[in-house]
Model the fold of this input.
Amino acid sequence: MARKFFVGGNWKCNGTSEEVKKIVGTLNDGKIESPEAVEVVVSPPFVFLPLVKSVLRPDFHVAAQNCWVKKGGAFTGEVSAEMLVNLGIPWVILGHSERRLLLSESNEFVGDKVAYALSKGLKVIACVGETLEQRESGSTFEVVAAQTKAIAERISDWTNVVLAYEPVWAIGTGKVATPAQAQEVHSELRKWLQINVSVEVAESTRIIYGGSVTGSNCKELAAQPDVDGFLVGGASLKPEFVDIINAATVKASA
Ligand SMILES: O=C(CO)COP(=O)(O)O
Done:
């Protein structure tokens, strides 16, 4: 089964309601070259989710940037998976490195969140990735395998999971991974899934790349056989996000 190209826009903690409407306006006017070949999801901050959902073109979907690890209740400041489902939010990003590193979310905690969100019917963009120090010490693959293992141990169905490889050193730095660097880790992750989960899951799970993706470097990355799309930060707030979505044509015409 061919893996449908997936492009996510992670808006992180950015935007006013005016700015958000402007970004959505640009997306709504954007010309998508191969609409049947790409799935597009944008992830505004929680407070803007209903607004974005109400004005966004119907072929694009929305994602939350996080959710609580279990059923809601006395957890001040948290948003539960049930609430996202209640609002008709189909996707959630979990395990982003900014939460792992700045808010000390462990592999196990992220794995628990992924399992809980899936159990409530959400689709999950699960993020993994190594720091510069880990890459330089040669432990990149060990790190992403441990992050993936903590998820794999807690779930049995990967249908609603997209795995995002986001090297921390490439996030917001302008230092994008080379196509070869991205391909190497994606192919190792796919191999890991094949050995530890199943051949089918390895074949069908989309592994997307994130970290300084732009309108100018996206096509070369998309041409790599194991790069099934992108998770875009900074450039997802700009009109060039449409060009990144259109990198799907590289796969569609391959
Ligand atoms: O963290 C990212 C997406 O989740 C990537 O961010 P940048 O595209 O700004 O590097």
